[in-house]
Design goal:
With 595 residues, the protein is an alpha/beta fold. Strand 12, helix 20 and strand 13 form a beta-alpha-beta unit. It is globular and about 75 Å long.
Length: 595
């Protein structure tokens, strides 16, 4: 299809292009005030398109649009129009009524369809730039529900939107990369294939996917890569490297190197750039020049008789680091945050492994917004080899989810007891709660109930945009609370969607250290909260870390690898993570009296 599009009259649209139109329709209908189920239908169809691993044009030509999840007859007809004519009547009429650019405003944090309609109709705001100008000029101040505070909030929202880029979350990139490795690894002649770049370093978001294959002959691997069904455009296709854009807009590149040079190539492509600069300095001090192809003695092959010796080829990264006199530096540490100096001093952190994690202390069930029963969660935890599982459903005050009040917690004891009976000694099942830290810093559950629970995770969910002093004080109150064991997802951030709360982290960390309250690394890939840099500061202060998947269903236990990676990136060693401790030690810690 890519080839066809060159001569076709209508430029072929990618899955992402079509999904964007459907999403925009949903947004514009919502601003217009249309009923919610219609809006959701467009969004579901857009999600269905984005999840496809094939080009929608191919599905279209087979007459299979209605087989796309979320796409029914009516939307299929509209997509057909769009792909056939490059236009959709419904959309054309809609944007004649509601300006197309209003949809952009839906991405501004804390700005909803009603306000957008108000700003449009009362102040003529139709674009992001127009919104910024209207706020700055005070044109929105007199509108209902507006004031200096909401103006400041809008400006913050616009700024955070500008900071956001098209980066992918680690949790989305990882399964995609695994699929690519499997497909391309099966290509004839490919001896080895690995991810590189920020994905191998397991950064919380990645800009693009870097893949690296070892093969004597690069042509077959590169040809297979550019012919993947999910490729929408080939951006480049050379002798040793190709880059593509997928149907969902993700970019990826594949390098192919001879197996004998795979180590230097992988080391180079893994980065980070700054880490590589450090290594090149060390190489130069040893009279070597480090490149993706080899370690080359300075003066090698200059043709003037000053040949400094033969190239050193490295098939593995171990050999690269060894040639520089260093132990292997795990990819998660390669951010130029002191890891090269630590490697030289043989003082790299002890590596935390997923297998070290024996307990999961923050999990939900059907008693709040989880999808599985307590027993189902317990069985799934047993299957994954956990020794301890805590059920910590939400407290009631959230408003958005059905949570537990004091009576609910008491009623839940019966089911916990029944589940304990059913699992016997296969796992230790703890009864806990994820209690909401209310806007004033009090907890959404009476103390006497909290006192009886095995684990108390206290988390901020509401009023996350409070001013710094207020939200910091609120967290401090929760940290100092005698029954709180763990602070869940401390900053409340959602990657690419919501900025962290404006916390004074020094104060938060100091209070956690002083009171012996653990801070969570929430492993959900939308959160990864605490972030790596804060986790590192926390362990330097002796604060206990708890890595939890916040599972709302059994498959969420799979998030653990992202939490562990975040901890590694924060130089966190197994000993600092309470989830690695022997059961008796962890249970004693949970039952301690806080200072
Ligand atoms: P990303 O994609 O923005 O999340 O970040 P990376 O780290 O994956 O960076 P990317 O994709 O631009 O490049 C992949 C790797 O290639 C990078 O980690 C190191 C290597 N690399 C790229 N450009 C340079 C460079 O100018 N100098 C050096 N030393 N290495 C580079
Ligand atoms: Ca990259
Ligand atoms: Zn939560």
């Amino acid at each position: 299809m890519n080839e066809q599009s060159e001569d076709a009259q209508i430029p072929s649209l990618t899955n992402k292009d079509v999904a964007d139109v459907l999403r925009r329709i949903g947004d514009l209908l919502q601003i217009k005030g249309e009923v919610i189920y219609k809006i959701l239908a467009y969004r579901k169809a857009a999600d269905g398109l984005m999840a496809l691993a094939r080009d929608v044009n191919a599905i279209h030509s087979e007459g299979g649009l209605e087989s796309i999840p979320g796409v029914g007859k009516a939307i299929a007809a509209k997509i057909d129009e769009l792909l056939t004519r490059g236009e959709m009547d419904f959309y054309t009429k809609l944007v004649a009524e509601v300006p197309e650019t209003l949809a952009e405003l839906m991405a501004v944090p804390d700005l909803g369809p009603k306000k957008i309609k108000l700003f449009w109709q009362e102040a003529g705001v139709t674009t992001l730039a127009g919104l910024e100008a209207a706020v700055t000029e005070g044109k929105l101040r007199e509108l209902p529900g507006m004031g200096p505070k909401s103006e400041a909030k809008l400006l913050d929202g616009l700024a955070s939107l500008a900071r956001r880029s098209g980066r992918m979350r680690l949790g989305d990139a990882t399964p995609l990369a695994r699929e690519l490795l499997e497909t391309l690894g099966a290509v004839e002649g490919v001896e080895r294939i690995e991810v590189a770049g920020s994905l191998r370093r397991m950064a919380e978001t990645v800009g693009d996917l870097d893949l690296l294959a070892a093969a004597e002959d690069s042509a077959a691997a590169l040809a297979a890569f550019v012919a993947l069904p999910r490729v929408a455009r080939v951006l480049g296709h050379g002798d040793t490297k190709a880059s593509v854009e997928f149907v969902d807009g993700t970019r990826a590149q594949l390098w192919v190197h001879p197996p004998a040079r795979f180590g230097t190539a992988l080391q180079y492509a893994t980065g980070s750039k700054d880490h590589n600069v450090r290594l090149r300095e060390i190489a130069l001090a040893k009279g070597l020049s480090l490149s993706e192809h080899a370690l080359t003695p300075v003066g090698h092959d200059k043709g003037d008789g000053t040949d400094g010796g033969a190239e050193i080829l490295c098939a593995s990264e171990d050999e690269v680091y060894a040639a520089l006199g260093l132990p292997f530096v795990p990819p998660e540490l390669r951010e130029d945050r002191g890891e090269v100096a630590a490697a030289k001093a043989d003082a790299l952190p002890k590596r935390l492994e997923v297998a070290h994690i024996r307990a999961q202390l923050h999990n939900h069930s059907t008693w709040s917004d989880g999808r599985s029963t307590i027993l189902e969660m317990a069985e799934a935890a047993i299957e994954r080899g956990f020794a301890i599982l805590a059920i910590t459903d939400h407290s009631g005050g959230l408003g958005i989810v059905q949570g537990l009040d004091a009576e609910g917690v008491i009623a839940q004891r019966v089911e916990i007891a029944a589940a304990r009976e059913a699992v016997g000694n296969r796992i230790v099942l703890l009864h806990g709660i994820e209690v909401d830290i209310l806007a004033d810093g009090s907890l959404d559950m009476p103390d006497e109930i909290l006192a009886e629970l095995d684990v108390v995770v206290a988390s901020p969910h509401v009023a996350l945009r409070q001013p710094r002093a207020q939200i910091t004080e609120r967290l401090l109150r929760a940290i100092r609370h005698p029954h709180v064991d763990i602070i869940g997802h401390p900053t409340g951030r959602l990657l690419g969607k919501r900025e962290p709360a404006d916390l004074d982290m020094d104060a938060v960390l100091a209070a956690a250290a002083e009171t012996g309250t653990a801070l969570e690394i929430n492993a959900n890939p939308h959160r990864l909260d605490l972030a790596d840099v804060y986790a590192r500061r926390a362990i330097e202060m002796g604060i206990a870390i708890s890595i939890n998947t916040d599972a709302h269903a059994p498959e969420h236990f799979d998030f653990l690898e992202y939490g562990v990676a975040t901890a590694r990136r924060g130089w966190v060693e197994p000993e600092s993570v309470i989830n690695t401790w022997a059961s008796e030690r962890l249970l004693a810690w949970l039952g301690r009296e806080k200072s």
